[in-house]
TrEMBL record:
Pfam families in the record: Excalibur
Organism: Bifidobacterium mongoliense DSM 21395
Chain intervals with Basic and acidic residues compositional bias: 89-131, 177-192
Protein's recorded name: Excalibur domain family protein
InterPro entries: Excalibur_Ca-bd_domain
Domain Excalibur calcium-binding residues, every copy: 156-192
Domain of life: Bacteria
Residue ranges of the region described as Disordered: 89-156, 168-192
Length: 192
């Protein structure tokens, strides 16, 4: 545009206070969204392996990609983006808390299991000690295996022929006259 004399005309456009306020709000919303995206990325990297449900992290990741590239002239678009990221962050934090609670519950159950196991061992030990006594509280009879009766020292066989002649063949361990010399194979039965 030029004046009648050919010199360029300078048009001054005055921005209204209302337009300036709207532009400032939009710029503030963009900065707020950028800050929220930064916080969300930090949470996303710090929550790896710490959530009970990985879908919360996947949703957060998808919303970061969608919101970080937002280029709009509409203030509600930025507000909606911040709100969506905040919901996602809350879900991830809840999932982190849930995993911690689940781990504590698992530890509590494991401690209870070990305590029950320890009590079972104590009860079994007490029962075994109790089994060693009769109901009257007196000790039970000796649990040692019975010993073979003592050999009659007055009976002696010089050989298996003598055992056979006495009508005692075969002669077994514990019977009068048994001697290991008469038991060649050591099975407890002599003069077979």
């Amino acid at each position: 545009m030029s004046d009648d004399d050919g010199s360029p005309r300078i048009l001054l456009v005055h921005e209204s206070a209302k337009d300036r306020a709207a532009r400032d709000k939009l710029a503030e919303a963009k900065r707020g969204l950028t800050a929220k995206v930064h916080d969300v990325r930090a949470l996303l990297s710090s929550s790896d392996g710490k959530v009970s449900d990985d879908n919360t992290r996947n949703t957060l990741h998808g919303d970061i990609d969608r919101v970080a590239t937002l280029d709009s002239k509409s203030l509600p678009d930025y507000e909606d983006g911040v709100n969506a990221l905040q919901r996602d962050m809350d879900a991830v934090r809840h999932s982190i808390d849930q995993k911690v609670a689940d781990q504590k519950e698992a530890e509590r159950k494991e401690a209870e299991r070990k305590e029950a196991e320890r009590k079972e061992v104590e009860r079994n030990n007490a029962e075994h000690q109790h089994d060693g006594q009769t109901n009257s509280g007196t000790p039970a009879p000796d649990q040692n295996p019975p010993q073979p009766p003592a050999q009659d020292q007055n009976v002696f066989y010089a050989s298996c022929a003598a055992v056979r002649a006495a009508g005692k063949a075969p002669i077994r361990v514990g019977e009068p006259g048994y001697d290991h010399r008469l038991d060649r194979d050591g099975d407890g039965v002599g003069c077979e």
